[in-house]
Specification:
Blueprint (H helix, E strand, L loop, with lengths): L2 E6 L14 E4 L2 E4 L2 E4 L6 H10 L5 E3 L3 H13 L3 E6 L7 H12 L4 E5 L4 H16 L4 H11 L3 E7 L3 H5 L5 H10 L1 E8 L2 E9 L1 H15 L8 E6 L2 H14 L6 E4 L2 H7 L3 E7 L2
Parallel strand pairs: 1-2, 1-6, 6-7, 11-12
Antiparallel strand pairs: 3-4, 3-5, 8-9, 8-13, 9-10, 11-13
Length: 280
């Protein structure tokens, strides 16, 4: 009985990027000014950011519903395989709860689901860890136990260049936006307890990148032997500033590079750069 891994597109692995036969990526829906798209299927990341900067309203995402999950889980079980599902933080979307409802409806011991408590890159790291464990041939329940521990050892740090999208998404007050914009303050974000929060500030992009490096060196016991990810949200210049700073000031050498997708990119806007890594 093989294990099949089911995830959603907010881990920033798109359906056409999957290289493992046992892995499937289910897309969330994105609505932009009334038009509907399937994340990473009917709209690319580049197309999304092009539409984002022109959109009258912030795009909205729609969770995968329980019926979709039930159909997918039953399909896998009927083929004689087991299901390991890992999904977007339940604090950010109802997708995980939809999967839980489907699991409860089927009531099979051959389904295990995990609330990643993350999105984008840290979610990606947890998925990559799941792939490693499945390839080791471990049983389903043991893999889940190891992943529940692994997710407590993942850190994300990011800076945002254009604060307008945080303001429009309600994650930054108008007053704070005005002050930060005038002073060129760039917030540094992390994820804690399933939510994206601010953890520091810096004056300008270069200082934001250096501040992240300082945090890597002083605040975290980084596990340099495990995967790490660097990413941008349609911000190649910001990505290179962060990468150069990491190489100059830290021992962190990200071995995975990705572009942040639409679900989180809606709130960061273009020009965000970030890293995610494991701690010991």
């Amino acid at each position: 009985m093989a294990i099949r891994l089911v995830v959603d597109t907010t881990c920033d692995i798109l359906p056409n990027e999957v290289t493992e036969e046992f892995m499937e990526v289910m897309p969330l829906k994105i609505f932009i000014d009334g038009d509907e798209y399937l994340d990473g299927v009917t709209i690319t990341r580049e197309e999304f950011f092009d539409k984002l900067v022109k959109a009258k309203n912030l795009p909205k995402t729609v969770q995968i519903n329980p019926i979709q999950f039930e159909e997918k889980f039953r399909e896998i079980l009927n083929q004689g395989d087991e299901v390991l599902g890992i999904f977007l933080s339940s604090k950010l979307s109802g997708t995980y709860n939809s999967a839980r409802i489907a699991k409860d409806e089927i009531n099979s011991e051959h389904i295990e689901i995990i609330d990643s408590t993350f999105t984008i890159m840290p979610f990606r790291l947890l998925v990559e860890e799941a792939v490693h464990l499945i390839k080791q041939g471990l049983p389903l329940k043991e893999i889940k136990e190891k992943l529940e521990i692994a997710k407590t050892k993942i850190v994300m740090l990011a800076f945002v260049s254009d604060l307008n999208y945080l303001r429009r998404g309600g994650r930054l007050s108008t007053a704070a936006f005005a002050i930060a914009n005038v002073l060129h303050i760039k917030p540094i974000l992390t994820m804690k307890d399933g939510e994206i929060i601010g953890c520091a500030k810096a004056l300008g992009i270069n200082k934001a990148a250096k501040a992240i490096c300082k945090m890597v060196n002083e605040d975290y016991n980084v596990d340099y032997n495990r995967d790490s990810v660097i990413a941008d949200a349609h911000g190649k210049a910001e990505l290179e500033i962060l990468r150069s700073s990491l190489y100059e000031l830290t021992q962190l050498r990200p071995n995975i590079q990705e572009e942040i997708g639409g679900t989180t990119g809606t709130y960061t806007g273009p020009g965000c750069a970030a890293i995610a890594f494991f701690v010991k």
